[in-house]
Amino acid sequence: MILKKFKWPIYHIFVGLLAIVMVYPVIWLLMSSFKPSNLIFTTSSSLIPDPWIWSNYVTGWIGSSGQSFMGFITNSLKIVIFSTIGAVLSSAFIAFGFARLQFKGRAIWFAVMMVTLMLPHDVVLVPQYIMFSKLGWIGTISPIVVPQYFGVPFFIFLMVQFIRTIPREMDEAATIDGVGKFGLFLRIILPLIIPALATASIFSFYWRWEDLMGPLLYLNKPSSYTVSLGLKMFLDSESVSNWGAMFAMSIVSLIPVLGVFFLFQRYIVEGISTSGLK
Amino acid sequence: MKSLAFRNNLVGYTFISPFVIGFLIFTLIPAAASLYFSFTDYDLLSSPSWIGLENYTSMFTSDDRYLQSLKVTMLYVFLGVPLRLIFALFVAMILNTTSKAVGLYRTVYYLPSIIGGSVAVSIMWRNLFGDQGIINVMLNSIGVDSVRWFGDPNAALFMLVTLSVWQFGSSMLIFLAGLKNIPNELYEASGVDGAGFFTKFFRITLPMLTPIILFNLIMQLISAFMTFVPAYIISKGEGGPLDGTLLYSLYLFRQAFVFFDMGYASAMAWVMLIIVGILTAVVFATSKLWVHYESEGGR
C-alpha cells in the first residue's frame, strides 16, 4: 500500500531479481548434484551441468560403509512420526486444560509454560544427557521421542490461542447435553482445532527432520543414524570423489521438507502469522 | 460446593498433568541439577566434586577460548539479528502489494527459511564460500581478490551472519501480517496531506509495527544466541578458523561432549541464561520508550 506509486515494470524487475538471488544457492546445489564431482568447483559459476549425470544420486543412495541412505530416511521417519504423534496429541490435551478449564493455579502453570518456551535448551542439556544415559536410553530414539509426549510449549501456546477463538456456547450446549470434559475435548474441541493440529504437525515434522543435536548426542550406531547425521557423515569423510554424492543426498534430504511445504502452504503461513500475534 | 471446586481442580490438573510431569522431569529437575553441576568438577565417570565458583571464575579469567566464544556470539547476535530484521521488514514491505505475482514471490522468498536449519543448507553454504565457490568466482569477476573464507576468522563469521540473514522468512511473515493490519486510511489521509514515502514510513508504518518488531526482536535474539547447527557444520564441529565460528552453544557442546567437562558446560549454560535474561529484560524495559500500542490511544 505504501509502495503504491512504484512503477509496475520496475517493481517486477527488482523483486524478480532479488527472488533469483534468494533461490540461487538452492538452484546451485540442485544443479551441482548433477555434475561430476571433479567439475563441481571448477564450473561453480555456471549452473548448467556439462555433462549432465545421474550417478551422484546412485552412489549417494548406496551410501558408504554398508549404510544406505534409505536407512537414514527410515530412521528419520520413525523419529518424526512417533515424535509428532506425541507432541501434537499431548499438546492439544494440555491446551484444552489451559484454555477451557477453571482450576486453582492455572495462571501460574500457564506462566511456567511461557517461561519454559523461552528457556534456552542448553541449560538442561547436560543433566538430560546424564539422565538418559542412566536410564540406558543412549543408542535408542527414546531420548528424542519420549519428551515429546509431555507437550511442547510452543504448540500448547498455539493451540490455547486457537481454542480461545472457539465460542464457549459450544461447550455449554454440550454440557447441557450431558457431555463430560473429556467428551467435550474429544468430540467438540479436537475436531474444531484441526488447522492448529495441522500447523503443529508440520512444525514438529520440520524440527525433528532437521534436528542434529538430538541424534548427535543419543544415536551412536551408523545403523540408527538419521538423515542429518548421514549428511554429516558424508561431510566428515569428504574427499574429491564424493562431493557430488553429498550434494545429491542434500537435495534428497530437502525433498520431504519442500513436499510438506507445498502441500500445506496455507496452514504454514497462517500458523506462523497467527502464532503469538493474536 | 467444596467438592465441586475439588472436582474442577482434579479435572484441570488431569488435563495439564502431562505438562506438569514433563516440566518437572525434563526441565525443573535438570535445571536444578545443572545449577549444582556448575559448582562442581564433573567428568561423567567419577562423581561430581564441589569446587565452588571455580568454573565461573576460570571462565572469565583463564579461558581465552571462552571469551572468544562470547565475543563471536555477541558479534553474531548484534550484527545478525538487526540485519535479519531489517531485511525481513524490507521484503515484507515489497511483498505487501496486491499484484498477482506476489504469491509466487512470497513462496520463493520464503523457500530459504523453509529448508531452514537443516544440515544440507549448512553444507551448501559452506561450499558456496569455498575457495573456488561461486562467491569467490563472483568477487573475481568484479575484480576483487578471492577471500579465504575458511582462513580468516572474521570472514568465517561473516558467512554465518549472511546465512542467518538469508533465512529471514519467519520474521518476514510476521511483519507481513502486521503490515496488513495497518489501516489503509492512514496512508490515504497522509497522502492527502502531501506526505512522501519516507514520511509515511517513519510516521505510520514503523510506529504501527513496533509491537511486532518487539516480538520478532525477542524471538530472534533468543534463537540467535542458541545457534548451533550452521556453526557446527560449517566448521566441521571445531569452531574454526582460529575459533572464528566458535559460537557459544558450540563451545558449550564441545566442553560437555568432547572434553567431558560437564561442570564447566553447566556453568556456561547458566551464564548464557543470565545473559539472555538480561538482554530480554533490557529490551522489554526499553520497549516502553519505543513500542506504540494502538489500544493506548497513541503516545
Features:
heterodimer; A: MetI-like fold; globular; B: about 300 residues; mainly alpha; MetI-like fold; two-stranded antiparallel sheet; 13 helices; about 0% strand
Task: Summarize the entry for a quick read.
The complex is a heterodimer of chains A (278) and B (299). Helices cover 69% and strands 0% of the residues of chain A.
Verbal overview:
- Chain A has helices at 8-32, 55-62, 69-100, 106-118, 122-134, 142-145, 153-164, 168-176, 181-192, 194-210, 213-218, 227-236, 243-274.
- Chain A has 278 residues and is mainly alpha-helical.
- Chain A has a domain at 64-233: MetI-like (MetI-like fold).
- In chain A, helix 10 (194-210) packs antiparallel against helix 13 and helix 12 packs antiparallel against helix 13 (243-274).
- The longest helix of chain A has 32 residues, at 69-100.
- Chain A is globular.
- The radius of gyration of chain B is 24 Å and the shape is globular.
- Chain B has helices at 2-37, 54-61, 64-95, 102-114, 119-128, 134-141, 153-166, 169-180, 184-192, 197-225, 229-234, 248-257, 262-290; strands at 40-41, 49-50.
- The longest helix of chain B has 36 residues, at 2-37.
- Chain B is mainly α and 299 residues long.
- Chain B has a single domain (63-288), classed as MetI-like (MetI-like fold, Orthogonal Bundle), CATH 1.10.3720.
- In chain B, a hairpin with a 7-residue loop joins strand 1 and strand 2 (49-50).
- The mean pLDDT of chain B is 88.
- Chain B has a two-stranded antiparallel sheet with strand order 1-2.
Chain-wise SSE layout:
The complex is a heterodimer of chains A (about 280) and B (about 300).
Chain A: H1 8-32, H2 55-62, H3 69-100, H4 106-118, H5 122-134, H6 142-145, H7 153-164, H8 168-176, H9 181-192, H10 194-210, H11 213-218, H12 227-236, H13 243-274
Helix pairs in contact in A: 2-13, 3-7, 3-10, 3-12, 10-13, 12-13
Chain B: H1 2-37, E1 40-41, E2 49-50, H2 54-61, H3 64-95, H4 102-114, H5 119-128, H6 134-141, H7 153-166, H8 169-180, H9 184-192, H10 197-225, H11 229-234, H12 248-257, H13 262-290
Helix pairs in contact in B: 1-13, 3-7, 3-8, 3-10, 4-8, 8-10, 10-13, 12-13
